[in-house]
Design brief:
The complex is a heterodimer of chains A (about 325) and B (about 700).
Chain A: H1 10-38, H2 48-58, E1 61-64, H3 69-88, H4 104-123, H5 128-159, H6 164-173, H7 181-197, H8 216-220, H9 225-250, H10 261-288, H11 297-318
Helix pairs in contact in A: 1-9, 1-10, 2-9, 3-4, 3-9, 4-5, 5-7, 5-11, 6-9, 7-9, 7-11, 9-10
Chain B: H1 5-25, H2 30-57, E1 66-71, E2 80-84, H3 86-109, H4 119-138, H5 142-160, H6 167-198, H7 203-211, H8 218-236, H9 244-251, H10 254-279, H11 285-307, H12 312-339, H13 343-378, H14 389-392, H15 394-407, H16 414-428, H17 440-467, H18 474-477, H19 484-502, H20 504-518, E3 528-529, E4 534-536, E5 544-545, H21 547-557, H22 559-569, E6 574-577, H23 595-598, H24 600-605, H25 607-610, E7 613-620, E8 627-635, H26 639-659, H27 667-690
Antiparallel strand pairs in B: 1-2, 3-4, 4-5, 7-8
Helix pairs in contact in B: 1-2, 1-4, 2-3, 2-4, 3-4, 3-10, 3-13, 3-19, 4-5, 4-10, 5-6, 5-10, 6-7, 6-8, 6-9, 8-10, 9-10, 9-12, 10-12, 10-13, 11-12, 11-17, 12-13, 12-16, 12-17, 13-15, 13-16, 13-19, 13-20, 15-17, 15-19, 16-17, 16-19
The chains are: A mainly alpha (about 325), B mainly alpha (about 700).
């Protein structure tokens, strides 16, 4: 058969899929809980998102009379595209299970595919809120994309590969060199993009359902039951994946390079630690900042672009 | 009879000629004219497609391409011969494949003109255009090329002006006519320069120049580069020579729009490929830099202007400018790599450009056909009048969605593959030079990312506003699905999109003879991993992708939501309910988001470019809160038109007013002019040969 020599590591694929599915809601829960704590509230339990998902899955669905099959297809596309990106990114091991199927470019493309369908799903029920959410989501994604790509390209160029696994492996070899200004600036740019892509505070407020300020939530307004579960879960997975890219490309400490239990265990623990650390940073940013006006967001994102461009220029100085 | 390119190619040309004749012959019997004209065109195009695929698959060697003499000739230099070398066969494939789908579609689409317009005339010009375009990409000497190039331009002009009752159409036609002839003038001068150096008008003779750089002084070479860039660039629609394109493409009948945007602008790309990679030899650095810069600017500006349109076909026309830009980014990078002698990367970048060329032809053709079906059903091109069509025209909607995903460069369809190749060549190119120019590659890549994301936004709008939600007008509510031939025509292109998207490694083998001809390398083996499942850059460590793998994995992962449903959701029910309306008495279409509203954030962010202007006039009796009537007008400035072309136009008019003094209408004065000119020329010759 033609796929016999592709060396797909089936156990690794299954393991990482499970990791993605299980860990993603926990990260969301941690962020919500810690944010509440910082605001002197008790906040929801850490594992509340799991209960939410199960509750949504058990509920009946109400679908808008104006909606078409595109509305129903969107949750599946969003959920599955996020999972697929997750399989292309190294999490616990240096080698991502599906790095052969695509690297940075495929990851960005798949996330865009999910966003494309989510925006269509927002437009489909003929509500003005959905249209507004779609319009804003696509706009912000469009201006975030150059910063995202330029920051990743800076790393890709120094490594000579667009493959996450190769990037991570090369970064691991560089030792303390990973703290050079190029990396720091590219990391800062990507952090801003992370906030934009996951709809966090200075750009979007995940907790609001106030008509005129919501972006991501506005598109989900007409979703209920199973579809809502897939959308929420997909968003959590996307968040986890983007965080994993950030922590593992820029701080590839402890990623397992072989399949031994010790290495894997260490890798998993360190990965969890790094993700939670980054979540804490996100919580901190969310707490000390107010949401920006929509037309201030481009300024922030162009700052990210400038940071990425400076990172690129600094490769001339430090390499 | 055996089927070889030698027999099939004449059949294809004959099919178009017959179709043209049948259109004119049955001009009074519109149904018969429709059937014969487009029927013959379909058959001819099928023969052409098969011929080109066969000759590419057989790996025609550039040394001995298939040559045919169409007409005998007594005039030296003018040979009516065509030759099917790999480059011609590749572009011939694009032309024929699109012609096939479009002719099939036209069988149904032309029915919309019954009783209104002459279908016979439409069919005749359509076939003439197909014939001329096929010959353009196959002609093998400059004279014949220019003749068919003109026939193509003129027949296209007649088709653009087909619905000439509307002033908008007439203006667009004239603009197209003028721009096209400026382009032809540039190309003619370019060929003259090449003739001066090579002493022949044959393309073989021109090709010999590339091996003998000393024959052509660097000044003439640069002049030829610029002339061809401008001449073919006008046809391709590069910024800032693009202004005719968004005017002319939307007003033509939709089958013609699809051909204009899908194919005719590709003849510009064909010309550029032929000249830059086959005639002019190793390029200096600044050529590549220029082409890459023009490509990047065209891509970004094309998509930005596309976002501002709410005329569905005009939106698609602006996207053609964007995609021509993406193609040129590949070509520009390739020229830069040729200069630095990185043949492998040059080949990769060239492949990226060529792959995007066929991709764009396929999905843009598809999208225009979809827009045509919508126009056919609703009789409007204004997106603000559409909506809800996904329920009324389900097949067309699905096809349009496939095209939208493909053009937005989303995996796993074909637009993604060619943009992936473009990104790869840009990123790998960073190491090819030490100069600061290498910064162009990652920045070009970032701008390509911006283009892709904006294109996705634009097609969310194009598909979402046109096909989703509630119908915004009576016409949209009454819309009906297109006839079966129109659907078949779109189906052919959907299949092509899926094939080119999922099986890039198969298609790349077809490009091998082509890259062999242009750069001397065949790299499809090098780009293929895992028996064709995975596409890789020139170096597998540099990055790999598998669209087929992604598509299959997506199917497998569908099992997870299915399992979740089995575990948790078996007992759940689905109800249909109203959309949440904030407690009002139901939502009306007027409350929906509009196309203009959708692109407002982008208009605001890039307002320095668009200079948006809006006028609101309210009338009220008592208080401004109770408006009796309201008029709203919004405009976006087309910078190139107002800043470059208007002043230029005024300058030309002013000069011609001055010149009018010379043309007093007196014969004696004209004779004096002629005499003086002759005298001056004689003096020049005497002076020249003395020194």
């Amino acid at each position: 058969m033609w796929f016999t020599n592709t060396n797909l590591n089936l156990p690794a694929i299954v393991a990482q899929t499970v990791l993605l599915l299980v860990l993603a809601p926990l990260v969301t829960g941690c962020i919500r809980n810690w944010k509440a704590r910082l605001q002197n509230r008790r906040g929801p339990r850490l594992w509340q998102p799991y209960f939410d998902l199960i509750k949504f899955l058990r509920k009946d669905m109400v679908i808008s009379e104006h909606a078409s099959w595109v509305f129903s297809a969107a949750p599946y596309v969003v959920f599955i595209s996020a999972l697929m990106v997750g399989l292309m990114v190294p999490m616990v091991t240096t080698q991502a299970p599906l790095s052969l199927f695509g690297g940075v470019l495929a990851a960005v493309g798949l996330l865009a595919l999910g966003r494309f369908f989510m925006a269509l799903g927002g437009l489909d029920p003929a509500s003005a809120f959905g249209g507004m959410g779609s319009s804003r989501e696509m706009t912000i994604a469009a201006i975030a994309e150059p910063a995202l790509m330029l920051a990743i390209f800076t790393v890709a160029i120094t490594v000579g590969s667009t493959d996450f696994s190769h990037m991570v492996a090369a970064e691991q070899q560089s030792g303390w060199d990973m703290l050079n200004p190029t990396h720091l600036m590219a990391f800062a740019a990507l952090f801003i993009v992370l906030l934009a892509e996951t709809g966090r505070v200075p750009i979007d407020n995940p907790a609001t359902h106030l008509e005129l300020t919501m972006i991501h939530e506005a598109m989900l307004l007409e979703y209920s039951g199973r579809y809502l579960a897939l959308m929420e879960w997909g968003a959590s997975i996307k968040q986890l994946v983007l965080m994993a890219i950030l922590v593992n490309v820029f701080l590839p400490l402890g990623l397992a390079s072989d399949g031994s239990v010790v290495a894997l265990g260490l890798g998993l623990v360190l990965f969890l630690g790094k993700i939670l650390l980054l979540s804490a940073a996100v919580v901190l940013v969310e707490t000390v900042n107010a949401k920006l006006r929509l037309f201030r967001v481009p300024d922030l994102l162009s700052a990210a672009f400038v940071l990425a461009a400076m990172a690129l220029l600094s490769t001339f100085l430090f390499h | 009879m055996d089927f070889t390119p030698t027999t099939l190619l004449p059949l294809a040309l004959m099919g178009y000629a017959l179709g043209c004749a049948a259109g004119l012959l049955f001009i009074r019997h519109e149904k018969l004219a429709n059937l014969c004209a487009f029927g013959f065109a379909t058959l001819g195009a099928l023969c052409g497609t098969v011929a080109c695929v066969m000759s590419l698959a057989a790996g025609v060697t550039p040394a001995a391409p298939l040559q045919l003499q169409l007409l005998p000739t007594l005039i030296p230099y003018l040979q009516f011969t065509i030759s099917l070398d790999p480059l011609s066969a590749f572009f011939g494939l694009i032309v024929s494949l699109l012609s096939f789908a479009l002719s099939l579609y036209s069988l149904g689409y032309a029915g919309g003109f019954y009783g209104r317009k002459s279908v016979g005339l439409l069919g005749a010009f359509f076939n003439l255009m197909l014939l001329a375009t096929t010959l353009v990409v196959m002609a093998d000497n400059a004279f014949f090329f220019l003749m068919v190039w003109e026939i193509m331009a003129l027949s296209a002009y007649c088709l653009v002006s087909f619905e000439h009752e509307k002033p908008e159409t007439r203006n667009a036609g004239v603009l197209y006519f003028v721009m096209s002839h400026i382009g032809t003038g540039c190309i003619m001068l370019g060929f003259l320069l090449l003739f001066q150096a090579s002493g022949s008008y044959g393309f073989d003779g021109f090709h010999a120049l590339s091996a003998k750089p000393e024959w052509l002084s660097s000044g003439s070479r640069n002049a030829a580069f610029l002339l061809f860039l401008a001449g073919f660039g006008i046809k391709a629609g590069i910024v800032p020579l693009h202004i005719w394109l968004p005017a002319a493409h939307p007003v033509a009948p939709s089958n013609v729009s699809a051909f204009l945007s899908g194919v005719i602008i590709k003849t510009g790309i064909y010309g550029l490929t032929r000249v830059f990679f086959y005639f002019l030899g190793t390029p200096p650095m600044w050529w590549g830099v220029t082409v890459l810069a023009i490509g990047t600017i065209s891509a970004v500006l094309g998509v930005l202007y596309a976002l501002m349109q709410h005329d569905l076909k005009r939106l698609l026309a602006y996207h053609s400018i964007e995609n021509i830009g993406i193609i040129l980014m590949g070509f520009g990078a390739s020229l830069m790599f040729l200069h630095t002698d990185h043949l492998l990367l040059a080949t990769l970048a060239l492949i990226a450009g060529l792959y995007h060329t066929i991709n764009h032809a396929v999905f843009k053709g598809l999208l225009f056909l979809g827009a045509g079906a919508v126009l056919h059903a609703t009789h409007t091109r204004d997106m603000e009048q559409m909506g809800g069509l996904v329920k009324r025209m389900p097949q067309t909607a699905f096809f349009f969605l496939v095209g939208a995903v493909a053009i937005s460069a989303l995996p796993p369809l074909n637009g993604f593959v060619s943009e992936w190749l473009t990104y790869q060549s840009l990123l790998q190119g960073f190491g090819t030079t030490d100069s600061l120019l290498r910064l162009m590659f990652p920045i070009g890549g970032a701008l390509l990312a911006l283009t892709g994301a904006l294109a996705a936004a634009c097609f969310v709008k194009a598909f979402g506003i046109t096909f989703l939600a509630q119908p915004r007008s009576e016409a949209a509510a009454q819309a009906h699905e297109a006839p079966v031939t129109m659907l078949l025509g779109q189906g052919v292109l959907v299949a092509a999109c899926v094939f080119l998207g999922l099986f890039p490694t198969v298609f790349l083998q077809v490009l091998d003879p082509l890259t062999q001809q242009l750069t001397g390398l065949q790299i499809s083996q090098q780009l293929t991993l895992a028996n064709g499942l995975v596409l890789s850059g020139v170096n597998p460590a540099g990055g790999t992708v598998s669209t087929l793998g992604i598509a299959m994995l997506g199917m497998v992962l569908l099992f997870i939501p299915f399992a979740l449903w089995l575990v948790f959701g078996l007992k759940t029910k689905t109800r249909i309910g109203p959309t949440w309306d904030c407690g009002l008495k139901g939502l009306t279409p007027r409350m929906e988001y509009t196309a203009t509203g959708f692109s407002k954030p982008i208009r605001m962010i890039f307002k320095a470019l668009f200079r948006p202007r809006r006028e609101v006039q309210r009338e009220y009796d008592f208080s401004p809160y109770f408006t009796t009537s309201i008029r709203f007008e919004a405009h976006v400035e087309e910078v190139f038109e107002t800043r470059i072309y208007r002043p230029l136009q005024r300058l030309v008019l002013r000069l011609s007013r001055r010149m009018r003094a010379l043309q007093a209408g007196s014969l004696q004065a004209y004779l004096i002019y002629i005499f003086i000119t002759l005298l001056l020329l004689l003096l020049y010759v005497v002076y020249k040969y003395k020194s």
